[in-house]
Amino acid sequence: MKRDIGRRLLMKIIGQEYFTCRDASTNSFNQDLRRLSEEYCFGEIWSRPGLPPSTRSLLCIGMLAALGKTSELRLHVGGALNNGCSVDEIKEILLQATIYCGLPTGVEATRIAEEVLKERGITFDAVAVPQGA
Amino acid sequence: MKRDIGRRLLMKIIGQEYFTCRDASTNSFNQDLRRLSEEYCFGEIWSRPGLPPSTRSLLCIGMLAALGKTSELRLHVGGALNNGCSVDEIKEILLQATIYCGLPTGVEATRIAEEVLKERGITFDAVAVPQGA
Amino acid sequence: MKRDIGRRLLMKIIGQEYFTCRDASTNSFNQDLRRLSEEYCFGEIWSRPGLPPSTRSLLCIGMLAALGKTSELRLHVGGALNNGCSVDEIKEILLQATIYCGLPTGVEATRIAEEVLKERGITFDAVAVPQGA
Amino acid sequence: MKRDIGRRLLMKIIGQEYFTCRDASTNSFNQDLRRLSEEYCFGEIWSRPGLPPSTRSLLCIGMLAALGKTSELRLHVGGALNNGCSVDEIKEILLQATIYCGLPTGVEATRIAEEVLKERGITFDAVAVPQGA
Amino acid sequence: MKRDIGRRLLMKIIGQEYFTCRDASTNSFNQDLRRLSEEYCFGEIWSRPGLPPSTRSLLCIGMLAALGKTSELRLHVGGALNNGCSVDEIKEILLQATIYCGLPTGVEATRIAEEVLKERGITFDAVAVPQGA
Amino acid sequence: MKRDIGRRLLMKIIGQEYFTCRDASTNSFNQDLRRLSEEYCFGEIWSRPGLPPSTRSLLCIGMLAALGKTSELRLHVGGALNNGCSVDEIKEILLQATIYCGLPTGVEATRIAEEVLKERGITFDAVAVPQGA
């Protein structure tokens, strides 16, 4: 039961298409890890009512930036949007990560987030930069 | 102006007493770091309206746990309470950090948080553990 | 059932005395983390037959040194002895960690291991160092 | 002499083909690093009798996963097979790394290991996942 | 004013071409991070007279290697040359990073540095390796 | 011979008193690590002429701050002074580390450096902070 709850929460985060691919590629080497992820990460923790999924998504972005786990960060930027976070909130997390984890972390995470958002069709206005430098 | 805003936000987080001590110990070696902290971390980032201070506090706890910065984590657990977070929310962040950063991180951060909360006079009911192990 | 198996494996590693203290200090703040640790870390993973506990202990020492998790490392040096590892094997792990994680990591982990071993009553012969330096 | 011993151990790990390429690309910029690696890492440490190469390989996988060093991890998954480790043992290390270093680490390391194993012609049976999620 | 100083220092490090691209891609998502970088990193810190830019570049290479921030490291290897560091000095930093951060870090950073230097048209003499291994 | 050179460089860094204690505490558990440190870290790398010891000291401070290795950082702040670095240069490294590694790193490293400098009898003038915050 915990695993089913976990699988539904995971699907909300990574999207139907990616979820189906993931299931199709589950094999004897990776099955235990995937089952643990579904039971333990999503079934046990993400389902807890103490924090809503949107806050859990923002927290994931911050921690994954801190840890430098860029593949997972990519997934969770999309997951944050799926869980109802705004682009603005994502931007704020990354600015705070820049101060707490250092500028290289902030630059790397912002670049990844921007790629994910553009893949989602979100566009950003160009901004003029100061003259004379 | 940015520095004054920052100093007020910092004082809310670390408390009046610690803030006064900090000012008394500012000297020619650490003054630039402290000014930068007040201007950039608190004056620039913490003051931004895109996330409320309570969310910024929860995010700090997550990132500091991920980074293993235990002294700062200690400060921010208290800061989270000052910014209106509940004990339950703090507990939830630490459980999520356990999954994403590993059990040793979760154990270390939970121990630190428990110490801070007890220093604040918060008590926790003892819990019986399973028999027969 | 998984939790009971986990609790027995954990007790073997941390010792009867420490295990009893841990149970006595379980409370409403830390109980979920502790239950997860017993179920998932020890009940699910440590119990798997694919690697013997002695190898899992050596692996823990290596990973905890790499992660810089000194409190957990302290526990697992003792746990390695409880699981049948020799002092020599522990020394070898730390030398390999020195190369792969850097000299500061190796120095810190070796100091911690030496403290734990001495607390266990294990003594080491003094060694003369080269003259003339 | 230590360097020759080291070079032979390194060749066993990375394979004859990769070893020859490496020698061909040694130049005035990277020669000191490569010599140190051959003398210090392989000649001094890997040759020590206190742990067999198979155990050293499993330890490397664990530490490299913990450190997030994905290129080196890729090399050492192949090296573990060359040193007599089984696919099952590699899988077990990665599951333990998941608990101790966090799920993102476990996912990243398992993906890399799976790629290496497939490049070696090792196949894995597909596994059906639970219905209804 | 601080921002202009910062932009000039940044341009010296990343080069005119990359700097112009960067300005062209500044948008509503990344503008705050970029402004902070120009003001805080370059305008405030890099401009300080206590260390010359060449020393700051060598320090960046060491810290970015330690942090595993490979994209930023790539930028700063080029920046070091722009700030007057020699290829030899860059090589020395990487050898010291190998000892202090571990061999995988040294190998990864050296590979990145070699790529950047070759893109700059710097060539290295091939070196013969010991026979008989 | 490399080991003797290394031991002399190490003694310059950690001081005569600490060096003598270290020799007195060398035993069968830690002797290999210490020998490796003397041969490879100091004998091979620190002795290389490509960077002067003062620059190597500044680099160590930056990397150890990045890695969070506080015990080693403590040693190398003193070592930097022994190798001719100024207090001002040490302060500059720590400010740059704050930007590149994050504010918690900068705060922790600055606190440690301040302790070491005070133990050395170096005093710092108190600095008045802005009124009204």
UniProtKB/TrEMBL annotation, chains A, B, C, D, E, F:
On the tree of life, the source organism's domain of life is Bacteria
Q: Name one GO molecular function term.
A: peroxiredoxin activity
The organism is Enterovirga rhinocerotis
Which ranges carry the Carboxymuconolactone decarboxylase-like domain? 33-115
Q: What is this protein called?
A: 4-carboxymuconolactone decarboxylase
Q: Name one Pfam family in it.
A: CMD
Q: Which SUPFAM superfamilies match?
A: AhpD-like
